[in-house]
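User: quick one, fold this
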Amino acid sequence: MKALSWMLCVIAVASISAGTLGGCEQKAEARIQVEKLPEVHASVPPVPTIPPAPYPVQYSDQSYSVYGLRRALRRTITTEVNVTAYIAKVFVPPECPPKEKCPLPPAPHVWLADTKTEADPLKQVIVAGYAENQKAIDDAMKEAKKSKGKAAAPPEDTGLLPIPTDLFPGAKIKLKGRFAFMSGAGFQSSEGVLDYLGHEILEPGIAPEPVKPTKGKK
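Assistant:
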């Protein structure tokens, strides 16, 4: 009987302890306040508007613009291309005073651009290799006048191209040339230059006043 009484006491004490602990846990849980955090909304900037290309890379006849020539540099460099553009500027050799020895000027060349008034050098491309000097162009013009505007073609066995006599400022032309970082005439640019291989006039330019032949060292 004593053993049974002792066991009943132990069970009673355990029950009281469990109840006490359970009550403490419930009170502790009741004291914890759960605070709901505000909802987070991602702040994403608006999608930027990409401006359209200023000029098409290629026109309907597959000729390049000056913009497109450089835009497609990987496939145009060191290749023969057709370019439709305006002559924005023509090199004019400086005059050499009589009886003075002046250095030879660079070979004749023009700058092509996508507009006839483009003045930014980075938006122009040099075309050279169509004449050795200004005198050759002047002589070709004289011959063209004699033959009613048609420049005399060089002998077939020379393999040379006729010297153009209508590359005037403002003219719109379709030029055939070889695009490279260095031209056969010695011009070079990291943006590329064109070696002249022929052209056709789409819109005539304005012929400048005649330039006196430059005298220099031979």
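User: anything notable?
Assistant: The two ends are 140 Å apart (CA to CA).
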